[in-house]
Write a structure and sequence with these properties.
Archaeosine Trna-guanine Transglycosylase, Chain: A, domain 4, Methane Monooxygenase Hydroxylase, Chain G, domain 1, 38% helix, 5 helices, 7-stranded mixed sheet, alpha+beta
Amino acid sequence: MFPVGTVLFPRGVLPLQVFEPRYKELVADITRRDHRFGVVLIERGSDVGGGDTRTGVGTVAEIAQMGELEDGRILLINVGRERIRVTRWLEDDPYPLAEIEAHPDESINGGLGPAVAATFVARQKLMALAIEMGADPGGLDIELPEDPIEAAWELCAASPLGPFDQQLLLEMTDATARTKALERMLTEQLADLERAVRGDGQQLD
């Protein structure tokens, strides 16, 4: 397991810089196996040195690219696969370990396709306005997969949210409800930016 300060969604991308000996050992172990490990958000504490408090729902990450620098640091590009739930944390020896189980969505409840379409529009409006105001929120254009479930996860991964909002979405087990919740979050951000534009016209740093 690799506790970090951000959330990895299925279909998301997580770059990691590995320098602690325990995580170098983790990388060595998983590259001899299936190149996969669990990622969870740190609720409190630091991802360096241990002593952190971790969330119980995370994502399986798979190493897509790996390289090593001259100073010994390991650079990883990881892709999110399926969602998992931690059933029991084990002793951190030699690195964080846990017993996990698959944590798929319980339902979709219909309407996922329209929810994805509406959320995509909300994201594009937000990103376009942020760029217009001088911010750099990341890529405006994204290409969604045809499968609505995969497209919904892609939108979660590509939207500018804080880690606790991201974790809230990750833990939701209805795909349609999760996508609609994301749309509300993006719409609220858009309203805040529009108020800022009407208020003083100042650009974002």
